[in-house]
Design brief:
alpha+beta; Immunoglobulin-like; Aminopeptidase; zinc; Peptidase_M14; protease
Length: about 675
């Protein structure tokens, strides 16, 4: 039994040239909200006449903004029901993250069910125009009507915001083969799923198989389970999304060309006659973001230091929002931190981490107040709203990955990333951008980790600088963040990404924050809950404050504890901290024993020396003019390279800290440090 196509696509074909917006810099065509089809005005190229661009100038936001309903491509069917899930404080059940079939779990297994290939309606076509609620109807029936109360056939639906399911085939009384819809205007990128099932039964064991997963590796082979949401449990017991599924398998299907991969699981529904949802990760829709922003703007306290503006509009006309967060009273002398999320729509965990980041920044916590006094935060919480609305995994309505388009993006094709890059370029001309962080999700590696930028030809000190922030974050989140999983190489295939583009512009610390779809294998190990994801935002803020501390005792401590830093050729770096103070009341904390027996003394001013270990054992001798009598001997053949850590701001940062003289920093040469120490003995 084949259940009819119930995804948010109809059978409309649009015979246009492939990806015209990629070929030239032109604005999107208009589309009346009252009609289903655009009425083009032919021009010399036979294409819709261009409109005035909805943005002002590169990187310049516009205000005020409104919160209209999401706009969909006109060929998308959208049901009228509003889909909302768990509210604040509802429980997410996150079981331990344990492999279900041992290591690997990736195997080739023949299947007895022949599944037809997904429709290719959108191959060779492109986005033309959009309207609120998509296609005007009439809609196709989602499934054959039930034959009676005894009919146990499940009813599937995905024609709602962020939904993705294209076809279901009933192959047994309680067994279904499912097909995901590729990203719109492409024939690939099948990973994100989110759909509704009704007419459930509590007693039988159901078996589901998604037959067209695209990636050869997945965390489903390492313990990841699908998410289930029961409306009855949410209403009666306050239980929201939970991880479910037994016999979870991810394996190769060799019956087609190119080969696809299958995800299968078995599950019992919690109630008879329930309405349930399945999802790859906790959904966070464009409407969820709008509700969050609406509450933010309506809050008189938070809106004092947060301005919500429109950075630009997407191809479909959805607003790409820009939040500017800082304390009232001007921005003179403040550096900038830029953050973005959801350039890949199927990585919804990034939105939950971004929400935690915003919640903390906008809170009354003392550290949040301090961050707002020190920095101007420019935040784009959803770079690809169109992809989120239609339920894509990776692409925008241009049919391409926007996180590979920063270097060549055109405003008419990738408006979000184009305007973000232009904004950062404009900011860099005015002030320092101390950090850029792009929030992502990862489907193949556990834990949380970062990708940074290291050109390879950089010196040791520069290379070490790139690793400081991830190292500190690993200390603040030891049960979630894996420093050993971080990578810093800039591959040619990554040149078009946000982090590399911002780094090329001049942002010295530019990172991608990757949040696993699954959870953490550190400590006891468990799936991530929504609260876990939100806590990452708070921990990122805490790390930013530590990272920019003008009295960097904590920076030095983390460098000392993380002295063994992976390099490209498996060698190591050893860090030694020498120190001095112009304040007579400054006293060192108890020394810590680091690698190679070097003791570290941390006081209010810290000089960091990078000692690159020689490959051969060297004779041991005292370092000439040794700063502290208790320091361990340093091999003669180890050469010292200075690592500069600059004080970012004069004045007080935290209560009880010494005042930093304006214009004074902590970058000292070895000779200066020795002379300073000798003069105070």
């Amino acid at each position: 039994m084949i259940l009819e196509v119930f995804s948010n696509l109809n059978d409309c074909k649009i015979p246009l040239d492939p990806f015209p917006a990629l070929l030239q810099d032109r604005p999107i065509p208009s589309c009346s909200s009252a009609t289903a089809k655009c009425q083009p005005s032919p021009n010399t190229q036979g294409r819709p006449a261009p409109l005035t661009q909805p943005w002002r100038s590169p990187g310049e936001p516009q205000a005020p903004f409104s919160l209209p309903a999401p706009r969909w491509p006109v060929e998308c069917e959208v049901i009228q029901e509003t889909i909302e899930h768990i509210g604040e404080g509802m429980l997410q059940l996150s079981p331990p993250l344990l492999p279900t079939h041992g290591p690997g779990c990736l195997r080739s297994t023949p299947t007895p069910t022949t599944v037809p290939a997904p429709p290719t309606v959108f191959q060779g076509s492109c986005f033309t125009c959009a309207r609120v609620r998509g296609a005007p109807g009439p809609f196709s029936s989602p499934a054959a009507p039930l034959e009676g109360p005894q009919d146990t056939t499940l009813l599937f639906e995905s024609r709602f915001e962020s939904g993705n399911l294209q076809k279901a085939i009933k192959v047994g009384p309680y067994e279904y083969v499912l097909m995901l819809r590729p990203d719109l205007y492409t024939a690939k990128h099948t990973q994100w799923f989110y759909f509704r099932v009704q007419n459930t039964r509590q007693e039988p064991l159901y078996h589901f198989t998604i037959a067209n997963m695209a990636k050869p590796k997945s965390l489903y082979g390492q313990g990841l389970q699908p998410l289930l949401y029961s409306q009855r449990d949410a209403q009666s017991r306050g239980i929201g999304w939970r991880r479910v599924g037994t016999d979870v398998r991810y394996y190769r299907d060799n019956t087609g060309e190119p080969p696809m991969f299958r995800l299968s699981w078995s599950v019992r529904f919690p109630h008879d006659g329930d309405t349930c949802f399945f999802a790859a990760c906790y959904p966070y829709t464009y409407s969820d973001l709008q509700r969050y922003l609406r509450a933010l703007v309506a809050d008189p306290a938070r809106s004092r230091y947060c301005a919500v503006q429109a950075l630009c509009r997407s191809l479909a006309g959805n607003t790409v929002y820009l939040l500017t967060i800082t304390s009232p009273g001007g921005v003179a002398g403040k550096r900038v931190v830029v953050a973005s999320a959801r350039v890949h729509p199927g990585e919804s965990g990034g939105s939950w981490a971004m929400r935690g980041f915003l919640d903390f920044l906008l809170s009354s916590h003392e550290d949040a107040k301090l961050l707002r006094r020190l920095f101007v935060f420019k935040v784009v919480p959803m770079l690809n709203p169109d992809g989120v609305v239609v339920g894509n995994s990776r692409c925008s309505l241009a049919g391409r990955d926007p996180n590979r388009a920063y270097g060549k993006a055109l405003p008419g094709s990738f408006p979000g990333v184009w305007h973000l890059r232009a904004m950062v370029q404009r900011l860099l001309a005015e002030r320092e951008v101390v950090l850029y962080c792009d929030f992502h999700g990862h489907s193949r590696k556990n834990n949380v980790f970062m990708y940074g930028c290291d050109a390879g030809r950089d010196g040791t000190a520069t290379r070490l600088h790139q690793r400081v922030f991830p190292l500190m974050l690993s200390k603040n989140a030891p049960d979630k963040f894996s420093f050993s999983s971080c990578k810093y190489q800039v591959q040619k295939s990554k040149e078009g990404t946000g982090r590399v583009s911002m780094w090329r512009l001049g942002v010295s610390h530019s990172y991608t924050l990757e949040v696993a779809f699954s959870g953490s294998t550190l400590g006891e190990g468990s799936h991530f809950s929504v609260q876990d994801l939100e806590s990452l935002g708070r921990l990122l803020c805490d790390t930013l404050l530590d990272f920019c501390d003008p009295v960097p005792a904590k920076v030095g401590l983390d460098l000392a504890q993380g002295a063994l830093v992976p390099r490209d050729h498996d060698d190591t770096l050893t860090l030694a901290l020498s120190h001095s103070s112009s304040r007579s009341d400054a006293s060192p904390v108890p020394p810590r024993l680091g690698p190679a027996g070097i003791q570290f003394f941390l006081v209010s001013r810290v000089e960091v020396l990078v000692l690159e270990r020689s490959p051969e054992p060297a004779p041991v001798s005292l370092f000439p003019g040794q700063l502290e009598q208790r320091m361990a001997p340093v091999p003669l053949q180890e050469r010292c390279l200075e690592l500069t850590l600059e004080w970012p701001f004069p004045g007080y940062l935290k209560q009880g800290m010494a005042t930093v003289p304006p214009g004074e920093g902590i970058s000292w040469t070895v000779a200066q440090a020795l002379r300073h120490t000798a003069s105070h003995r």
